[in-house]
Amino acid sequence: MATTIFTLDAKTVNRIREPGTYTFTEALALTNFGKFNYILILISGLVTGTMVLETSSIGFVLPIAQCELQLTNRDKGILSTINFVGIIASSHLWGFFADTKGRRHVLWSTLLVAFVSTVFSSFAHNFWTMVLLRFVNGFFVSSTTVIYAYLGEFHAPKTRSRAIMCSAVIFSAVAMLLPMIAYLVINQDWVLPLTFLRINYRPWRVFLIVCGVPGLLCSIIIYILPESPKFLLTIGEETKAIQVLQKMHRWNNGKETLRITHILPDDDTSIITPKFNNCDSNSNFALVFLQTMWSQTAPLFQRKYLQITVIICNIQFWVLVAANGLYMWFPQTINSMVAFIKEHPGEHKQICEIVYDQQDALYKTDGTIECVTKLETPTFYYSLIMEILYASSFAVVGFIINRVGKILILFITIIFFTSCGLASVFIVNPVIAAYLYVLFFVVGVATIVLNAITIDLYPTHLRAMASCISLMVGRVGSIAGANVAGALMGQHCEWNFYIYCGALFVCAFLALLLARKNVHGES
To answer: Which intervals of the chain form a coiled coil (predicted)?
Structure first.
């Protein structure tokens, strides 16, 4: 079986304009911006919020489940990052399928399987069962990165960045629910013995399921929504693309019919038609599959895109080292600070000194573990403050992104929030240090801005793959960040801040090297 890819340059196609034809951007503008776009932005925000709920919920579970699952610091590091291992294992795969089979099909099917795995993980009776099921969850939930390409391709360049940032506001609103859900569910006192499964079903298990429910809802709604019209045009399905645009127009404008006879591709669009010859007995499907995947990936590392790809991947890596990796220890660290403030009012200590004292109290010299059945109430307060700051930052960025520019916003975001994180390790007032520590994690806003930049810098047939590859590298950072933080937390806590903040400052200046215009010459 052989693979042939035919590419037709859009500029060649557009030399001759027939009456009644439009470029894709012109046709998209005719649909107007209305109800369909608002629904899509809402769903996109819920999808990205699902990723946060599924990956971050474990941070609230670990301090409570450590006795039941007999977790050491090493075990906590593994459990806090195993979702990201699954994400890395499949990011390339979902990027390939999204660019070849369609964004919509990948999204709804994988979100459904991710929810099922979450339900099963809530019944895990030991550490390794939980590890396996959370890996499966991460393997399928990683497809959520495709949503940036899906959302972006329903919007013209003029409204695309704002749509992505508005979806980020929805995402942060969903993420804001995490500490609220944790407070309402985790701190309850009931227990349901399930002797046939050898577990006691406690509130933290229900918490996992509740955090997975938005993924189930998104799966159902995306199943109803249409495929990206730009993707359909890219694979040569012009008739279906017109039908999607007409559906958008009906949703946005009522019953009035949008009359389009022919759509021409934009200058950033190549019409790519993969053709597979019939399989014969000697065909090696796996080999052809890998060759096709490589043909979809290789352009990202060729001269035209190499510098862009390297810079974006570096920034994603270090931002997610902090925003995801170190964040896995946030509930435990902030809970220790809250307990210290409560037990020693008015006393001053640096954040890492408090962490050292907590480690000594938690793990006894005789090998036993001090059981924590509830988190301190102010821990949820600080988590909520963080999510409110996320939402506020996304709203501000969404309002100014077209006026100020994405690259400048990315630079300022990284510099400001990283400075807060570095300052927090030196402040001896634990209340001020706690607020600065919270501000540090808002550096995660940079990932959404970077995703908007990524969509602009790559053509249609590479966008989903570019997003998935860069975020896959970012998830490697999440794994590295959580495990390195766990290894350093007990005796070298300060180095978590020195290493991560230093690298983030370098990334801020790397962002300035990204082109002000994309490779197609669009502003």
So the answer is: none
pLDDT score recorded for residue 108: 94
Number of other residues whose CB lies within 10 A of the CB of residue 371: 11
- What's the DSSP call for residue 369? B
Helix, coil or strand: residue 363: strand
Residue 437 forms part of a structural domain? yes
Q: What per-residue confidence (pLDDT) applies to 296?
A: 67
- With vertex at residue 346, the alpha carbon angle to CA 340 and CA 350, rounded to the nearest 5 degrees, is 55
Q: What's the CATH number where 53 sits?
A: 1.20.1250.20
Tracing tokens 């929805």 back to the chain, one arrives at: 170
Is residue 2 situated within a structural domain? no
User: Which range of residues forms the domain containing residue 46?
Assistant: 10-275+300-511
pLDDT at 6: 38
Whole-angstrom distance, CA of residue 301 vs CA of residue 142 = 22
So what's the pLDDT on residue 10? 44
Burial class (CB in 10 A: 0-12, 13-18, 19+), 288: middle
Burial of residue 298 (CB within 10 Å: 0-12, 13-18, 19+) is exposed
Phi, psi of 274, deg, nearest 5: -75, 130
CA–CA gap between residue 115 and residue 249 (Å, rounded) = 33
CB 174 within 8 A of CB 47: no
Number of domains in the chain: 1
**Token pair recorded at residue 25:** 């951007």
**How far apart (Å, rounded) are the C-alpha atoms in residues 104 and 382?**
36
3-class SS of residue 188: coil
Does any domain span residue 477? yes
**What would the two tokens of residue 248 be?**
């958008």
Query: Which pLDDT score is estimated for 285?
Result: 58
CA distance 143 to 129: 23
Predicted confidence at residue 315, as pLDDT, reads 94
Which residues are registered as beta bridge partners of 273? 6
CB 493 within 8 A of CB 355: yes
Q: What is the pTM of this model?
A: 0.73
Which candidate, 444, 489, 192, 465, places its Cα nearest to that of 332?
A: 489
pLDDT along the chain (523 residues), means of 10: 41 53 83 90 92 87 84 82 86 81 91 95 91 94 87 85 82 84 88 86 93 94 92 86 88 79 69 48 60 73 84 92 84 86 87 81 62 78 87 81 85 94 92 92 88 81 77 84 81 88 94 64 39
- Phi then psi for residue 504, to 5 deg, are -65, -35
With residue 424 as reference, give the H or E element that holds it.
helix 406-424
Residue 1 lies inside a defined structural domain of this protein:
no
Q: Which residues pair with 274 in a beta bridge?
A: 5
